[in-house]
Structure formats: structure tokens, C-alpha cells
Amino acid sequence: MHLLRARTFALVSWLFVGLALTATTAFSQTRELSSSGVLLDRIAAVVNDGVVLASQLDAQTDEIITRLRQQKTELPPRNVLRKQILERLIIEEVQMQRASRLGIEVSEEMLNGALEDVGKRNNIPFPDLPRALAQQGIDYRDYRDEIRKQMTLQMLRQRDVIARVNISPRELDQFMARQQNAPDQNSEYNISHILISVPVTASPEQIETREQRAREVYDKAKAGEDFAQLAVTYSESSTNIEGGSLGWRRGPQLPSIIADRIAQMKAGEVAEPIRTPSGFHIFRLNETRGGAGGEAVISQVHARHILLRTTELEDDQTIEQKLNGIRDRILNGGEDFAAIAAVTSQDPGSAADGGDLGWTGPGSFVPEFEKQIQGLGENEISKPFKTQYGWHIVQLLGRRDHDATEDRKTQQAYAQLREAKAEEETELWLRRLRDEAFVEYRM
User: Fold this and answer.
1) SS (H, E, C) the chain
2) Hey, which residues does 356 pair with through a beta bridge?
3) Measured between alpha carbons, how far is 185 from 227 in angstroms, rounded to an integer?
4) CB 361 within 8 A of CB 422
5) Which residues contact 51 (CB under 8 A, 6 or more apart)?
6) With CB atoms 3.0 to 4.6 Å apart as the test, which of 31, 182, 246, 375 could cross-link to 18 if both were Cys?
7) Could you tell me the CA-to-CA distances from 42 to 82, 189, 372, 383 in Å, in that order?
């Protein structure tokens, strides 16, 4: 695996795969002129109180063109491609500004852990990573900055989107009932996607125009035109520059709006446009392959936690001190963990249950959280620690080996439904951020 392609590395391991936002390295150049009057850089767009530089746009464009050529994808006109890339950079800048206002930061410890994972995936010891990157012409400092930025964007999405996605028991039951006609859970499907977006406040005439555009793109794809090029040219999804590729997904990981149809489609087939609140979606099934089933008996842990998040008024140090105080009240003051979690924890999925996370198997939590649980004895409470979700203390309540066949079906259905909602909400969230931003084009 080429390290330059590892920008999304472990981010896709717990997050919706299709919507991983890739961008080029941010540069710190300014518009200052040297004493000789040589222009160092230009502004491509003013975004609120920040800017997108022409150097960023040029570098991103060159990288995308190289990638598309390697994939043997026919290139759209350069001006069309640059417009798509500039919009992506603008949306990324808006997100980074919001993350800064909210005090979202990636600590050095979290960043080093992510880079260590990159090294492990490439069989490179962490101390040797700078040298390995240099051999590929990649500056280690720039690479760290890029990984930090991508982690920040994921943490922001977690806070603004994923944490607000809730699945009711009725929704889950109805979804599982539909699973009878769903794709095989152990099969994998390689799919691509085009989104023709519809503004939230669109008039009937605008909706009709966008629907007509979607139908025209669908007809082109149906007639055999290259789907990847159509995605680059027309799609308004965050995966447009990747040719609309959502990669390989198992049955439970497919977007729910297309899962039933995928089961009936053949490789190379394109589904008719599907209307959702974010717009019209066109999916193509590229390939299918069989998948192996997992073991039925797994090792599980039972844990509960308390989650607190930083705000503009409360930084990391303040939140850590609060959790240390809560931990002391439980250990030395005899207060009940569940009672405190119910009134203080900011995890909407577990607070009402006293922070109880239930019995969970491997891979249920992000690596930092699982590492803490693995190091605990029964009934032991961890010291405060930070993940992309916020600051936690966690208590291990027990361990067991469990036949998880039925549980896995429920968990897979829940994950699929949650991810589908998250993907749709992410597109709407990004559009709201973009619509609310002040943008002035300079190129």
C-alpha cells in the first residue's frame, strides 16, 4: 500500500467508508511578497475569515489528475475538475474553521497513535516512518499535518452528525424484517455513486430541473459512458473526485436506499435515480465477491462509561479535571456510577442507561477505548482518557465468551441503518455549512 494513499488509513475502520473526505496538504504560505516583488501565492477563494490558496488548488488538481490517469479514467475538462476540487477545498476550510471554534483538537498522542497504525499497516516501525515517507518524496511534517487535519474533520463529523443519529427499536425491527430480501451478509459488493443534489429550500421547478439532470446522467451511464468520469463531472457527493467509488462493502454495509436493489442487480448494471432529501442518487454495481462468515462464539466485555466533551468555555484540561473529580466521588465517596452517568454523561446512546454499553465484542469501539478496557480488571474504573468522541472514564463490569450469532445479525442491521442515516445526514450537514459560509471566488 502506497503511503500517499494511506491518508484515510484507520479513519474508515469505524466510520462510513464512502464519505471519507480526502484533501491535499494544507500549506502555510501567505500572500506576502518578497523584497524582490516575487508573488509567493495567490488566493483562489475567500472563505469566511480564511482563504483557499491557489497552491492548494494546483497541488490537489495535479494529484487527482495523476490518480485518475492511473485508474485509466477519462479526464473531464480541466476547468470542470478544478471547479469540483475548489468546492471540496472550500467545504473543507469551512469545516476546519468550525472545528477551531468548537475547540476540537487532535493531541500529539492521538496523532502519533494514528501514524503508528499507518506504519503497522505498511510493516514500517514508527521511528522509520519519516525516512520511508522521504523515499517516496513526501515531507513527514506535511504528512503529519494532513493526518491531523483528516482526524479533526472526522471528530467534527462525529460531534455534529454521528452523535445525533438515533435508531428507534421500531426502525430496527422493520429494517430487520426487510433483511429477508437484502443482499447476502457474507457477500461483498463494489459500488459507485453519483449524487445530483437538491437544495433544501428548492422550488418545484428546481426539483424538476435536478431530476431531469439526474435522468440525463443515468441515461449516459446506462448507454455505457464511463461511470467514474460521469461522477467526476456531474456528482456533487464528497466522493466525486474518486469517480464516485464507495469501495467494497458487505451486505450490511450497503446504503439502505439501494441495498434491496443491489441484491437483484448484475455486475455493471446501473440503478435508476433514487430520490432522498439530499437529492437524486445513481448507483452502479461494479463487482461482487463471496465473503467468509465469522466465528459464532466471541469474547465479549460488559462496560459502562461517562462521556464529556470540550466546549468553547471548557477546554481539555477542564474536562479532564471534571472526570477526575467524578472518578474520585465514585471510588472514595461511594457515589453510584450509573446515577452520575445518567445526569452528566453526554453520550445520548448510553446516558439514560447509566452509561451502560452492554455486552460488546471486538471492534465495537475505537482503538483508544478498547485499549483502556483491555487494561482494566473487573469493576475497575479507568483514569480519564480522550478519543475522537470526547473525554471518558470507563468501568469494566465483566467478561464472557458468547454465542453471538443472533446478536451479530442485530448489530449488523443496526450498524447498516445507522451508517445509512449518517451518510444522508452528512451530505445535508455539509450543504448547510456551505450555504451559511461567505465565499468570494478570486479565480
Assistant:
1) CCHHHHHHHHHHHCCCCCCCCCCCCCCCCCCCECCCCCECCCEEEEECCEEEEHHHHHHHHHHHHHHHHHCCCCCCCHHHHHHHHHHHHHHHHHHHHHHHHCCCCCCHHHHHHHHHHHHHHCCCCHHHHHHHHHHCCCCHHHHHHHHHHHHHHHHHHHHHCHHHCCCCHHHHHHHHHHHHHCCCCCEEEEEEEEEEECCCCCCHHHHHHHHHHHHHHHHHHHCCCCHHHHHHHHCCCCCHHHCCEEEEEEHHHCCHHHHHHHCCCCCCCECCCEEECCEEEEEEEEEEEECCCCCCEEEEEEEEEEEECCCCCCCHHHHHHHHHHHHHHHHCCCCCHHHHHHHHCCCCCCHHHCCEEEEECCCCCCHHHHHHHHCCCCCCECCCEEECCEEEEEEEEEEEEEECHHHHHHHHHHHHHHHHHHHHHHHHHHHHHHHHCCEEECC
2) 304
3) 26
4) no
5) 43, 44, 45, 93
6) 246
7) 15, 43, 47, 48
Bigger pLDDT: 357 vs 362: 357
Q: Which residues of 369-396 are buried (b: 16+ CB within 10 A; e: fewer)?
A: bbebbeebeeeebbebbbbbbbbbbbbb
Of 389, 367, 393, 362, nearest in space to 380 by CA: 393
Residue 148 CB partners (closer than 8 Å, separation 6+): 106, 111
Alpha carbons 373 and 370: distance in angstroms, whole number: 5
Of 56 and 12, more confident: 56
In percent, the amount of the chain with pLDDT more than 90 equals: 45
Distance (Å, rounded) from C-alpha 174 to C-alpha 169? 9
Quick one: CA torsion of 118, 122, 126, 131, rounded to 10 degrees? -110
Strands, sheet with 439-441, edge to edge from the N-terminal-most edge strand: 50-53, 43-47, 439-441
Answering whether pTM is above 0.90, one says no
Name the grid cell of 366: 475505537
List the one residue out of 436, 420, 360 whose CA is nearest residue 161. Answer: 420
Place of cell 424538476: 208
Cα 405 to chain centroid distance, Å, stands at 28
Calpha distance 120→114 (Å, rounded): 10
For CA atoms 235, 237, 241, 247, the dihedral sign is: negative
CA distance 238 to 416: 19
User: What is the C-alpha end-to-end distance of the chain, expressed in Å?
Assistant: 36
pLDDT digits (tens, 9 = 90+) for 396-405: 999 988 766 6
